[in-house]
Amino acid sequence: MSAHCCDHETPNAESIVNLGRYRKILWIALIINAAMFLVEIGAGFQAGSLSLLADAVDFAGDALNYAVSLAVLASALAWRARAAILKAVSMMGFGLYVLGAALWSVWHGEVPQAMTMGAVALLALAANVAVAWMLYAFREGDANMRSVWLCSRNDAIGNVAVFMAALGVFGTGSAWPDLAVASLMAALALHGGWTVLHKARVELGDSKSKGSHLDHAH
Asked: What's the first-to-final CA gap in the chain, in angstroms?
C-alpha cells in the first residue's frame, strides 16, 4: 500500500465539524482578501504608495493561499505539507520583490498621498483583524493551517505599519516612512515564509517516514 493512501487517519465527529468550520472560514477569508486586493491595488497606484502596493500584492498572495488550502484541506499530510511549501516560497518571493521595489524607489520614488494611505490602511486593518480572529483557533494546526494564520497575522501587523507610515509621510513630507514600512513588510514575509517552510519540511519528512514504516509492515 502506498504512503499516500496510508496517510489518512479515520476522522472523528469533532474533527469533521472542525474541518467544516475551517473550510467556511477559508472561503470568507478568500473573498475578503480578493476584494481588498482590488481596493489596494487601485489606491496604491493612485496614491503612489509602495507600502499600499506591497500590501495589495500580499492580499493577492493570501487569496491564492486560501484557495490552495481549500484544495488540499482533506488531503493527506504529505500533500498539505507540499502546499505549505508552495505558500512559503510565495511569501518569501513577495518579501524579495518588495525589498527590490523599495531599493528602486530610493532613487526614483515620489512622495505618496498620506490621506489615501491612512484611510485604506485602516480599512485593510479591519479586514485582516476579522480574518485573523476567525483563524486564531487553528493557529497551532499543521504547517498548512499555520501558514494561513501567519499570513493573516502578518497582514494585520503590516496594516498598522502602513497607517503609521501614512502619519510619517504626512508629518515629514518625505517618502522614507513609506519605504521603511514596505521593507518591514518584506522582512515579515521572509521570516514567516521561512518558519512555514521549516515546519512543512519536517512534516513532509515525517510523512515519508511513516509511509515507509507502513510499507514494510505490509
From this structure: 7
Coil/strand/helix, residue 146: helix
Domains annotated on the chain, with CATH: 10-217 (1.20.1510)
In 174-211, which positions are buried (b, 16+ CB within 10 angstroms) versus exposed (e)? ebebbbbbbbbbbebbbebbebbbebbeebbeebeeeb
User: What is the tens place of the pLDDT at every residue in 108-145?
Assistant: 767 889 999 999 999 999 998 888 888 777 766 666 56
Cell of 84: 505549505
Cβ neighbors of 174 (< 8 A, separation 6 or more) are 111, 168
Q: Are 40 and 53 in contact (CB under 8 A)?
A: yes
The amino acid sitting at 100 is G
* CA 14 to centroid of chain Cα atoms: 27
Query: What pLDDT score was predicted for residue 166?
Result: 94
How far apart are the C-alpha atoms of 75 and 209, rounded to whole Å? Answer: 18
Q: Which helix (H) or strand (E) holds 139?
A: none
CB 26 within 8 A of CB 66: yes
pTM across the whole model: 0.67
DSSP string, 95-142: HHHHHHHHHHHHHH-----HHHHHHHHHHHHHHHHHHHHHHGGGTTS-
